[in-house]
Task: structure prediction
Amino acid sequence: MKAKRFGIDIDGTVTCPTSLIPFINQDFSLNITLDDIKKYDLSEALDIPAERFSDWFNKREPAIYASSPLAEGAKEVLLKWKEQFQLFFISARRNHLMNITERWFEEQDILYDRIELIGSHDKIKAAKQYKVDIFLEDKHDNAVSIHEELRIPVLLFNTPYNQDPIPDGVIRVDNWAQAEQWVNRWVHPTKAVSISENSY
Result:
């Protein structure tokens, strides 16, 4: 049995958080960058009526997910982790997008133990079901609620839209290299004694 179980969000975590931007710019005649998105709710962030944005997203979702680029460094880290840990990808995507999601993982050559598309941002039930020991996420309130409910560390991938304060058990990382470094210290704490000592 592998020692640790990882719960991992997909969009904005494994995929690059800029994935939607080319589609938004094209379809809404905008010229935004990731730095312009200060809120997770894109209709609010971009001042587009919620119903209009929702209709657009429902139509564009398959194309967006099929073409989403990987976050830099994600593949290299996930390939290493798959040798040591169990990987459960838990996403708010709806289940009818499973075929597109599985195909994307296959094309990216990313292995996994399970993909769970729950159709909701409430990932606590799935995280409990799979008994994950750590979670990786980009949505601020998800990260906080998962940590507070399950009392596990959550790595929050830093973006302009998740800058609210976080509790101690939620750890900001700027990229997958930092995530890997943090996990190495977490899994092998005795090797990080000198790091801990230097922090006091």
Q: What stands out?
A: The beta strands are 5-8, 86-91, 114-117, 134-137, 154-157, 170-173. The longest helix spans residues 50-67. The radius of gyration is 17 Å. The mean pLDDT is 93.
